[in-house]
Amino acid sequence: MNPPQFQDSGNMEKQIIAEENVQKEQHPAQNTPKKSTYRIPKIDISKLSAKLIYFKNRKLQLSLLLLLIIVIIFAAFIMISKNPAQTGEKTVVKITIASPAPTPDPELEQVKKDVVVFNNVLDSLDWELDNIKFPQIDLDIKF
Amino acid sequence: MPTNKFPVSCIKYFAILFLTLSLFTIFLLALSLLALSYSNVSNGSLTFAQTPLDQAKKDYTEKTSDLSNTKNAYITAKSTYQAFGTATAKAEAFAKTKEYLISVDRLLLSYLALVSEYGSETRWQSSSFNKAATDQVITDQITFMQDHLEKVQNTQTLEELPPLSLDLKTRLDKDTRPKINKVAETYDIAQTESIFGSFINVSQLLNEFVEKRITAQNHTLLINWQSEINDIREKTLTNLSLSKESYKKIKDDSFNSHQIKQTDEILERAKIELKRSKSLFEEMTKII
Fold this sequence. Notes:
The structure holds two protein chains of two kinds.
Chain A: H1 3-26, H2 28-31, H3 45-53, H4 58-82, H5 106-123
Chain B: H1 5-37, E1 39-42, E2 45-48, H2 52-84, H3 87-121, H4 131-153, H5 161-213, H6 219-248, H7 257-287
Antiparallel strand pairs in B: 1-2
Helix pairs in contact in B: 2-3, 3-4, 3-5, 4-5, 5-6, 5-7, 6-7
């Protein structure tokens, strides 16, 4: 049995515990449990653009530029093709009935067509022949 | 040192793609320009290319405007010369009178071209008139105007211009005006005759078809329709014949507005009769 040894060991333990408590007080955040949220790494755009500008490989730089132009042109074409001209007229959807339609009479259709053509021709009776009235010209030139 | 082939091939690929797209864009632009060349943008809207008749009308309007401007300049120069009588004023009067006479000839040529275009628009089928004859009348007048224009352009002094002006005035009064007025009347009668011919054909066709298909209960309707059609035919034929008789009295060597007016009035009656057929034909096509 050696009581002083026990005392020494007890002092050492106290010192270690005291130091640990100090460390715990100094770095309380280190012992807190880590959060599981993912953080997006911050990108400094100015540094990135500077890197691109001073990029040593000029060919790669050119290819990137070409790619950008092509993408813009493609996007423009796609945007144009996806915007059809709006005429302001509603599209009329003709609904056809599946039931057997009456067979058109070709003779009747021809007669109706002839009548329509004639009626259009009839409108040409009102043509503007007044436009060819002889012009009035002063030719009384005397000095 | 190992060569990195990837960027080189990549650049080639993109360059080809870029060139193809550029060519396609240029092609589209060229197509747009081509389309625009066949059209005319006016008042902010896109319109289709003009017909020869529209072009002739436009040209005639422009020449009328030119004549108005040169006439004002001629009147001013004439007044100055008559007031001061200086050599400078005479030279100015000569220049402005010459310009005026040139614009008169150009206006008349433009007018004759317009008349000719109306002749091309006229329906000559089933007509008793000959287009070639009216074309010849216009051609003769054009030849005279071109000759007169050349004479005016070759003048050197003011004294040469009044006789040339008188020469043109005489020609217009005694030949051009009466003949061209008669040509215009020819177009009108020929067109009406042609449409009357179409009326005969369509009415016969419709009558034959309806007679075969009409039901007994609509038979009275058909008879009344036929009598209306016959009435139109008779009245149109009568008025057309009368208008042609009146037309023959239009003189070629003097301006006779009364005879032209009378012919127009008779022809108008024929047109009114013909127009009645429109509703009758439409009615019958609905019934059958």
